[in-house]
Amino acid sequence: MKNVDWLQVAAIPKLLEAQEELEVLVITPQKGKGMLFPKGGWELDKSKKEAALRETIKEAGVRGTIGGKLDKWSFKSKTHDTFYEGYMFPLLVQEQLELWPEQNILLNEVAPDICQIISGTSMACPHASAAAVYV
């Protein structure tokens, strides 16, 4: 069993307008490739759910209701000798903000087909089981 150096939380923001398809909001780094779910570090002064909501507001510019844990994942950093453990939560989007802290760094966009996320990005692969449960 490896030691965990850093804990992360993430959310899959589901849009309310989606009727027949599952529409989720993803973020795209301006200098990077692919689509990611909003994620970030978990500080012990907040619950995991509160931290996931904070990261979703900060990175994707949406607020909503966080549901129960969908999945847990572990991975090693590609650039540091660090192990991460993360927790994924669903988020039902209730408000899209006009301004948010990281809007100049991360772009948000709707991914109407969850398969785009699962098959097309490096970050999404560890979350395939969580996304499948969410569908």
TrEMBL record:
Superkingdom: Eukaryota
GO molecular function: metal ion binding; pyrophosphatase activity; serine-type endopeptidase activity
CC per GO annotation: cytoplasm; nucleus
Stored SUPFAM superfamilies: Nudix (SSF55811), Subtilisin-like (SSF52743)
Cofactor dependency: Mg(2+)
Keyword Metal-binding part of the UniProt annotation: yes
PROSITE patterns assigned: SUBTILASE_SER
InterPro entries the UniProt entry points to: DDP-like_NUDIX, NUDIX_hydrolase-like_dom_sf, NUDIX_hydrolase_dom, Peptidase_S8/S53_dom_sf, Peptidase_S8_Ser-AS
The Nudix hydrolase domain, residue ranges: 12-84
Keywords: Hydrolase, Magnesium, Metal-binding, Protease, Serine protease
One biological process term in Gene Ontology: proteolysis
Residues annotated as transmembrane: none
Family membership noted in the UniProt record: Belongs to the Nudix hydrolase family.
Full protein name: Nudix hydrolase domain-containing protein
Organism from which the protein derives: Clitoria ternatea (Butterfly pea)
